[in-house]
Amino acid sequence: MNRSRLALSALCASALLSLLATADAQQAAAFRRFTLRDGKTFYGVITTKSSTSVTFTLQNGKPSTQPIRALSEPDQQFVRKWTKFKDDLLNNAEFASLTVKEMLELRGYQSFEFDIEGNHIFVDGEVGGKSMRFMIDTGAHSSIIHDGSAKEAGLEIGPYDQEIRGVAGSQKAAVTRISVLKLGDTVVENRKLLATDFVPIGGGPGQFEVIFGADFLRELDAVISYREGRIFLKPDNIVKKAAPEGKPAPAAATGPKADFRRWTSSDGAKTFQAALVEKSDKDATFRMQGDKLVKLELDKLSEADREIVAKWSKLRDDLTKSPEWRTLTVKELLELRSYQSFEYRLEGNHILVDGKIGDTKTRFLIDTGAHSCTMDYKFAKETAKLEVGKLGETMVRGIGGEAPAAFTKIPVITLGDAVIRDRQAISAEIHKGGIGGEGNHDALFGAEFLRELDAVINYKEGRMFLKPDNSDKPDSTAKPADAPKKDAADAPAEEKK
Q: What's the average model confidence in pLDDT over 461-472?
């Protein structure tokens, strides 16, 4: 055997050992404690399941098949939701490194980086061809434009015979019609908006000129991610003008040929059609016409093509082609990343989530437009019996101008597993001519806590996601759990010998 073959054999052996070590590490990480209905526990990895039974690999390497009904109720639910595809993702190091942005863009969302100032979310857009700054406000039932900016954009404004309400009260507004509103590739045409003066609420030119409210956020299946400072929209949800009659556009390519593109040599003299299927630090493997595989050194490709290869990922490429990936919900994706989700209710366009302040059940309105947590004064003082200051010692600002408020001490706020302790918030008469009716909600869960908990708000699925580990919940790592034992004691009763 010549020296090059020996080197190749050694390289293959090294790669195989590396793969085996990675697989062993992933398998070890995947072991989970399961509990039977009789209270006995064992550690295992799910390998297959049917509608009535599930097969595990135990830590001693032996297989164990159990009726699903023999497991505890939580573990039955876990098994029923388990799929091999999701399990492989959960134990894939590259998937674990994908950001929310990367996952959602693989699902056809377009993202916009937003600015956060004073806990408020701002993005840049256009109305009628004029650049404007948008404030993203889930607490706003409808989108609103500053009347002065609307006039500058050439919009016609009707009589001020409308009334809009906010945390500080109400104010007059007028109906206007926009020809075009743009956010990236999202184009909204020929819609009615309300126009009012934003100056009393700190808006207007140089601040923000459009409040992008829950009406458009719902229509565009918006996802808001505080951790990454991004808002994601589905531009295709907007009803576009019908295409002119005539020859229909060709259908998008599907199947293997859809992956083919034109590649160019480093000297520009040659081109070829191929699909990229593998890469390393030094070369790339292409599938040519006729399914022949060809490996090329990267320095033989043009600079532009080398950049494409550098950004290419086999995992991402596989995911975009996977039917199961396309069926995963945002909820499933984020729960794979340790987010906890809450199903919320929409009343009008408002997002309502149940939680607690102290020991008192509380209904929160999720409001990205609210700087911090703002409670109803009567609820805080009489129902939750919190330590509330004097009404008027501070002010709250919003639609309607300013309204008196009181500093309020919160011992603890609980939303699912997320816990926020010992904070100062404010209380105001939020139902006195304000948003919602009495009983609709007790408090505004504002941007301060949404940022802290890396909140993700998903309109399409009606869910909000929080990172409980970011909160003030008791440290579950203070007392380490018993380490799993690699012996027959971990096996279900029928496996013990």
A: 82
pLDDT (tens digit per residue) in 337-357: 778 888 888 787 788 999 999
What is the pLDDT, as a whole number, of residue 10?
Answer: 40
pLDDT in tens, 64-85: 999 999 999 989 988 998 888 8
H-helix or E-strand spanning residue 111: strand 110-113
**Digit-coded pLDDT (tens) for 356-394:** 999 999 999 998 888 889 999 999 999 999 999 999 999
Q: Are 462 and 410 in contact (CB under 8 A)?
A: no
* Average pLDDT along the chain: 81
Q: In Å, how far from its chain's centre is CA 463?
A: 10
Sign of CA dihedral 460, 222, 104, 120: negative
What's the rounded Cα separation, in Å, for the pair 497 and 491? Answer: 10
Structure tokens at 14: 């090294």
Distance of CA 154 to the CA centre of its chain: 36
Answer for the pair 195, 206: CB distance below 8 angstroms, yes or no.
Answer: no
**Rounded Cα gap, residues 259 and 241, in angstroms:** 30
User: Is 451:471 a contact under the CB 8 Å cutoff?
Assistant: no
Amino acid identity at 71: L
Closest by CA to 415, choosing from 452, 345, 364, 371, is: 364
DSSP per residue over 279-309, as a string? E-SSEEEEEETTS-EEEEEGGGB-HHHHHHH
Please, which residues have CB within 8 angstroms of residue 47's CB and are 6 or more apart in sequence? 55, 56, 57, 63
Only one residue has tokens 């004029």, namely: 130
Q: Label the pairing between strands 401-415 and 443-445.
A: unpaired
pTM, two decimals, is 0.67
